[in-house]
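Researcher: Quick test of sequence recovery. Tokens follow.
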């Protein structure tokens, strides 16, 4: 196959083979998880689809206990042969053309699994031995679905004479490859620990236009390589190679900067799960997205220097540039994107003015602005065993948006960008083609704010029993460099709409935008009034609050007695949707775009909120608006509960680090 390969042979402290980062020109798109080893005979299409589905993007099904993962087959099939451990170890180890592995008392031939395994040759570490010690570290495998797939490769059983009293082979121990992973910010919400996959809490997500490096979402398939330098190797279609050190890249080429948002293709997958059906993959909230300014060398300049002559590539439009990472993960993009003067594809060594962190690709990573990472999505009726080759490759990310903060009632005065809010109140937003200073802008709907003292003790703007002040914030983003032109907000489930104000971050000298197109996200702000519906007859108070004599205020200064009765909650659904400059807009529902992988979950973002009478921090109750997700002041933080639950589950399997 004619190809261009960019290979980064990076020095590292561990005595391990350093697989290349290949940028290859190929006549057809590659799946983004192609391993860097030489292909073995491929499995059946249904097997391959299932394997990629399960292991490429990590599952977040409940972690199984050790007893659940170590169950034995009580009645081995008499039609399958028995094998001695010595035979498996000596004849089917890492260097064998037919590597085998064991799990409990079963034997599996994983030869046809290798081309599909996203970790590439890493799986060969277990060849000739047991998977169990590896699965105790890589807990992502501890799910029923993964075990179902493994059963397709069952070829026999371990001979009973090699099993211990417990019916299992002798235990083995291995080095934990994650022991030297970077220390992460404790504020991150972790979905899996080994490998680490985490997103920032909503209140930190879009606090600034550029996401601080420690809060940038973390997405890994393997442990983080330890690097102390590096060499980049570019392999051209004719097989010629050109090598560069990282220092040479910095000295010989013009340093370029590009402002670009990166987003996992599974961002908001949890929304699709909740609103359309079960999906396989990490159940990301709205935080698998972050924005940064990247610094490095333009890929087109590097390819030209390496000797690529585009005019001689007759099939350029059909060729792909293939990148293979040190951690064995790979991705490809069309060659026209890689060499586009305005495409801004970088080989980056810097992030937000700092050296690229290990968690985000140190010492060198590719940044492809506007493109999706893992790029396969099936139809709503297609299951997990479809032929992946028939699913067209998706390159550019569709338009999306999300709510990251909600404040209601007294909480509104705590919002930094609201009038009198203090820090951040001078944000400049774009509304109707002009720049607006939020500190001088009244609420869009319902009332005009009063001056607020700097100490925050002055009450919020006056309200009536018919409304509550509300403030919302969030982000919007579209792939392909398309600019966000409008963000629509509804406070009543879509019955009525209003427009949010777009923060004009690129005009701020402190956050300039770099690049030829709008590769970064757009932050938006909205402030108005939330109708409070008339309350119907009271209903029994929840037992947890039904204490005789307990009183609270209803939000309007009126005392409400909690003598076993409470006004029925009146909930509403907040909605946001965005439109880009090509007039692409978000689909209304996830049902129409549902896919079993949960990729590209870009439907309208909905947040249901309900008023509840609860006890305030000062010992005095108040009517606050609670939601089941993580948002602003006065809201129950579900993500924190999820984080604690996942930590407890991880600790129960011995992986709580």
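Model:
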């Amino acid at each position: 196959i004619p190809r261009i390969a960019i290979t980064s042979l990076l020095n590292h402290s561990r005595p391990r083979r350093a697989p290349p980062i290949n940028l290859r020109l190929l006549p057809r798109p590659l799946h983004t998880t192609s391993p860097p080893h030489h292909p073995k005979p491929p499995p059946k299409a249904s097997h391959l689809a299932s394997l990629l589905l399960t292991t490429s993007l990590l599952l977040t099904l409940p972690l199984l206990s050790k007893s659940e993962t170590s169950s034995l087959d009580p009645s081995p099939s008499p039609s399958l042969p028995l094998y001695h451990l010595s035979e498996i170890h000596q004849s089917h180890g890492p260097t064998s053309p037919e590597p085998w592995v064991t799990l409990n008392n079963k034997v599996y031939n994983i030869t046809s699994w290798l081309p599909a395994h996203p970790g590439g040759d890493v799986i060969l570490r277990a060849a000739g031995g047991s998977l169990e010690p590896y699965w105790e570290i890589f807990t992502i495998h501890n799910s029923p679905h993964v075990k179902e797939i493994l059963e397709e490769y069952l070829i026999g059983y371990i001979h009973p004479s090699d099993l211990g009293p417990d019916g299992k082979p002798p235990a083995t121990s291995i080095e934990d490859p994650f022991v030297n992973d970077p220390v992460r910010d404790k504020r991150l919400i972790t979905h899996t620990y080994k490998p680490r996959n985490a997103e920032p809490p909503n209140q930190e997500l879009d606090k600034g236009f550029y996401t601080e490096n420690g809060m940038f979402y973390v997405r890994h398939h393997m442990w983080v390589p330890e690097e102390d330098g590096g060499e980049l190797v570019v392999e051209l279609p004719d097989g010629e190679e050109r090598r560069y050190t990282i220092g040479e890249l910095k000295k010989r080429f013009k340093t370029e900067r590009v402002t670009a948002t990166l987003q996992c293709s599974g961002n908001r997958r949890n929304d699709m799960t909740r609103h359309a059906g079960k999906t396989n993959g990490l159940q990301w909230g709205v935080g698998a997205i972050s924005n940064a300014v990247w610094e490095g060398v333009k890929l087109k300049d590097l390819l030209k220097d390496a000797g690529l002559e585009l005019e001689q590539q007759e099939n350029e439009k059909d060729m792909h540039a293939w990148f293979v990472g040190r951690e064995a993960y790979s991705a490809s993009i069309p060659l026209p994107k890689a060499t586009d003067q305005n495409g801004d594809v970088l080989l980056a060594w810097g992030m937000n003015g700092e050296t690229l962190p290990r968690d985000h690709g140190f010492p060198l990573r590719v940044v492809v602005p506007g493109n999706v990472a893992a790029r396969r999505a099936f139809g709503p009726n297609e299951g997990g065993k479809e032929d992946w080759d028939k699913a067209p490759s998706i390159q550019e990310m569709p338009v999306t948006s999300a709510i990251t903060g909600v404040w209601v009632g007294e909480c509104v005065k705590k919002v930094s960008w609201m009038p009198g809010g203090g820090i951040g109140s001078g944000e400049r937003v774009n509304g109707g083609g002009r720049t607006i200073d939020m500190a001088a802008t009244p609420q869009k709907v319902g009332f005009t704010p009063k001056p607020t003292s700097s100490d925050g003790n002055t009450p919020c703007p006056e309200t009536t029993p018919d409304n509550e002040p509300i403030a919302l914030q969030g982000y919007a983003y579209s792939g392909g460099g398309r600019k966000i032109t409008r963000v629509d907000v509804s406070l009543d489930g879509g019955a009525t709409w209003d427009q949010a104000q777009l923060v004009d971050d690129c005009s701020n000298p402190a956050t300039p935008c770099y690049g030829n197109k709008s590769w970064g996200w757009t932050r938006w702000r909205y402030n108005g009034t939330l109708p409070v519906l008339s309350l119907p007859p009271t209903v029994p108070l929840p037992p947890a609050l039904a204490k005789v004599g307990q009183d609270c205020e209803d939000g309007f200064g009126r005392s409400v007695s909690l003598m076993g009765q409470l006004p029925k909650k009146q909930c509403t659904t907040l909605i946001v949707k965005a439109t880009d400059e090509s007039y692409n807009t978000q689909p209304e529902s996830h049902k129409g775009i549902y896919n079993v992988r949960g990729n590209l979950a870009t439907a309208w973002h909905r947040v249901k909120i309900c008023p509840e009478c609860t006890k305030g921090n000062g010992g005095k109750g108040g009517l606050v608006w609670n939601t089941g997700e993580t948002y602003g002041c006065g809201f129950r933080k579900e993500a924190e509960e999820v984080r604690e639950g996942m930590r407890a589950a991880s600790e129960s399997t011995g992986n709580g680090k």
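The chain has eleven helices and 32 strands.
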